[in-house]
């Protein structure tokens, strides 16, 4: 089995961070989101991994080009960011010659992939999807199930009896991929993967599913990224993570904090926050914050929360005392 990570969708509510950094490169526990997925694939003994990236983010390769870092063979494909996920999949035509696990680069999950890989390997499924129960059905593609079979996949429905969301983790069989590569399903090339899977269901294809009973989330908002940071730190049995070359001076670093490379924190208190690289935080009380690269916050001991993009400069002025 091979692994394919699709990183072409940069739409989110993570502005201004995503003005300069694609969301799948945003850090959680001092590592890009996509790196956590690569490591999960590697830990499941997936040795051939390809990443599909937009052609305007080719510097992505500089971050992940070292195969030895992940103990796997890495390959990269650059595509126009406006193309569909199915078109992106077929752009890697020379790579998809084996069973394939497909994961979108803005996903976070805390489970091992090995169990699901074993289930798929023992099955005769054309496609297998991983489902997670959700209350926010209108934010997800929802699988409608009856008698242990997927009957339909509804795109962000307002009303449905099902609460099982597609997790953006998919398994495709080599036989299905072979037919795609030969152009037998070209009419579906401009579709997203859930829509293609729905067509496969309605054509009588063998589409299976497994439920996720632990953590999975799609990183779309600030609270998602902070929650992801918290979950990864917890999995690492760490309250916080501080880069080896960051400097902490007369400051208190509380729970769920990541501090990036070469950042300096002085006379401050920080909790539940992500401080990226090359930042200066001085005399500030930060809570529920994400601070972009090369930013400075001079806080005058004021409580600050929010999201600050790269190269932000924040100076909190002291209030003049009343006479």
Strand content: 35-45%
Total domain units: 2
Structural class: alpha/beta
- The DSSP helix count reads 8
Q: Can you tell me the CATH topology of the largest domain?
A: Spore Coat Polysaccharide Biosynthesis Protein SpsA, Chain A
Alpha-carbon distance between the two ends: 74 Å
* CATH superfamily descriptor of the largest domain: Spore Coat Polysaccharide Biosynthesis Protein SpsA, Chain A
> How many beta-strand runs?
23
* Helix coverage percent: 10-25%
CATH class of the largest domain: Alpha Beta
CATH architecture of the largest domain: Alpha-Beta Complex
Unreliable stretches (pLDDT < 50, length at least 5) are none
Query: Which descriptor suits the 3D outline?
Result: elongated
